[in-house]
Write a structure and sequence with these properties.
mainly alpha
């Protein structure tokens, strides 16, 4: 037994080394000025200079505090590499934390998957270690979606194990990492107050709030602003008022990139500067209605699951809501579907419905192309035709996948689909 355990750890170690080698080499060698030069690099250097007062000193710092705090640890090597114009070391250090969290996801999927079997755990680890969309996101682009996905996975795993306090704490840490974690708030509240006793639900909720306050407190003191969290969160929601920001979703079918969401559906008047009809009943109003319908769908899902005694886990409810928001809502960036990918992977890890493996494969390709076509369109000449043609075509596929996943979700809630959980609620 002991030798078998060590053999498993050795095999996982090889997979993790493979994942680390691929990511770190690509991260260092691929120079990406897009997003990193105007945002991440100045944030890292700013943390080294200003510490907890950084929000009052940098006007463009619009992330919650966890990522800036982590950048503090690489502030000096980033500043030295930039001063020396050493692009390899600059990319290595500024992409290091996203890569580390992506490696953490590889380890987490292995740890969760090995509950079924050693082979399954290693297979899940290998699938993420070689996932092209994840590699591109953290190592090529240097984005922070791996932080969000890591805490989503921890939150979902905690709720799967019927540990609502821990799940809410991980949710709070996720909110300290990225704004998009807040999209889970309705699912979290329904999970707590529908499936658990009020005392346990309130305890979990207060625990999460406490973690959130503690995470923000040093920066609030340093910036001398009691409203700092509200400024960052609500400012982020209102920052990009456009129909689409290069996302491959419903609006991507019509290539509605950077079109104001105040565009009129009916009524309004023609704007002399843009030539667009603005005002009246706008797409922003439609988006509010769509969001309410999606929230209503989640409420129905919880009600139906309880009525039909269907064991529908937290992450499946979250999958429906987050994917619905990405596909049908305005203001979506090209990377905002990455959390949906980890949720589908969790359906594979915990579930028995083999169709989610196909969904994970398809969604991997969709998120990969959404990132690749957009980034190279921005930083390389000659990529505009590929993005222009690819966006509507892949968007159609993405909308179709959303329709399929939505059908699976409501079937699961009404007891007609393959159950993803066999555990009884406490």
């Amino acid at each position: 037994m002991k030798s078998d355990r060590w053999t498993e750890f050795f095999r996982f170690g090889c997979i993790l080394l493979l994942a680390a080698g691929v990511r770190l080499v690509i991260a260092a060698e691929f120079y990406n000025p897009f997003d990193l030069t105007p945002y991440n690099i100045p944030w890292a250097i700013g943390m080294g200079k200003y510490g907890f007062s950084v929000y009052s000193m940098l006007e463009n710092l619009d992330y919650p505090p966890l990522f800036p705090f982590l950048l503090w640890s690489v502030a000096r090597p980033v500043a030295l590499a930039e001063a020396a114009q050493d692009s390899v070391m600059l990319m290595f250090w500024i992409k290091l934390w996203p890569v580390l969290f992506d490696l953490g996801l590889t380890a987490l999927l292995w740890w969760l998957g090995r509950r079924k079997s050693e082979t399954f755990g290693l297979t899940m680890a290998l699938c993420w270690a070689l996932n092209p969309s994840a590699i591109f996101n953290c190592a090529v682009w240097g984005q922070t979606d791996s932080l969000l996905m890591f805490f989503i996975a921890l939150c979902a795993a905690a709720f799967w194990d019927r540990r609502p306090v821990l799940g809410t704490v991980w949710f709070a840490v996720g909110c300290l990492a990225k704004l998009q974690m807040a999209y889970f708030a309705p699912v979290l509240l329904l999970e707590l107050f529908v499936l658990y006793r009020p005392k346990k639900a309130v305890t979990a909720l207060l625990s999460g709030i406490g973690v959130g306050v503690l995470g923000w407190l040093p920066f609030m003191i340093g910036s001398r602003s009691l409203t700092l969290p509200f400024d960052i969160y609500f400012g982020g929601f209102d920052k990009y008022n456009y129909l689409d920001l290069n996302a491959f979703n419903l609006y991507g079918i019509f290539s509605a990139n950077w079109v104001p969401d105040q565009l009129s559906i009916f009524g309004g008047a023609v704007d002399a500067e843009t030539g667009l009809r603005l005002g009246g009943f706008t797409f922003a109003h439609l988006n509010t209605i769509v969001t309410l319908l999606l929230l209503g769908g989640v409420c129905f899902g919880y009600w139906a699951a309880k009525k039909y005694r269907a064991q529908v886990p937290f992450f499946l409810h979250g999958l429906y809501l987050l994917n619905g928001i990405f596909i049908l809502s305005t203001k979506m960036h090209e990377r905002y579907q990455m959390p949906v990918l980890i949720l589908v992977m969790l359906c594979v890890v915990f579930g028995t419905d083999l169709r989610y493996r196909t969904a994970a494969l398809v969604l991997t390709q969709i998120t990969f192309f959404n990132q690749v076509l957009l980034l190279f369109y921005r930083i390389r000449e000659g990529w505009e035709p590929a993005f222009t043609v690819g966006q509507p075509l892949v968007s159609v596929l993405n909308v179709a996948l959303f329709a399929v996943l939505t059908v699976w979700y409501f079937k699961a809630c009404t007891g007609k689909g393959v159950p993803l959980s066999g555990k009884k609620r406490k």
